């Protein structure tokens, strides 16, 4: 793992088309897009289980929302739609 992880996490070698597909140049989609791209790269290298988490704030700012659903879920959807499609 220590020898292969640096290469797996180096997304700079991905094509510009791949970066665009995952939304890496867009502030809204960059964080989750990078997570999805890293997950894909890990699976391609034989990782058997990968979990991709959206949102860093616990019970708010992610899909497990217990706050203001009409206010908080639309921005979350905007941040994950393109990366998930890629």
Number of helices: 4
SSE ordering: HHHH
> In the residues, how many domains can be counted?
1
Structural class: mainly alpha
Globular, elongated, flat, extended or rod-shaped: what is the shape? globular
Portion in strands: under 5%
Number of strands: 0
- Arithmetic mean of pLDDT: 87
Could you list the spans in which at least 5 consecutive residues all have pLDDT below 50? none
Distance between the termini: 26 Å
Question: Biggest β-sheet, characterized?
Answer: none
Give the fraction of residues assigned to helices.
40-55%
Instruction: Round the Cα radius of gyration to an integer and report it.
Output: 14 Å
How would you describe what is shown here?
The protein is mainly alpha-helical. Helices cover 50% and strands 0% of the residues. The chain has one domain (5-85). Helix 3 (30-44) packs across helix 4 (69-85). The longest helix is centred in the C-terminal third of the chain and has 17 residues, at 69-85. It starts with a helix and ends with a helix. 13% of the residues are buried. The mean pLDDT is 87.
């Amino acid at each position: 793992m220590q020898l292969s992880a640096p290469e797996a996490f180096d997304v700079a070698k991905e094509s510009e088309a791949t970066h665009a597909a995952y939304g890496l140049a867009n502030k809204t989609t960059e964080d989750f897009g990078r997570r999805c791209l890293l997950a894909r790269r890990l699976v391609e290298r034989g990782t058997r289980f990968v979990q991709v988490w959206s949102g860093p704030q616990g019970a708010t700012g992610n899909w497990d929302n217990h706050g203001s659903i009409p206010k908080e879920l639309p921005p979350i959807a905007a941040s994950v739609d393109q990366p998930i499609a890629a």
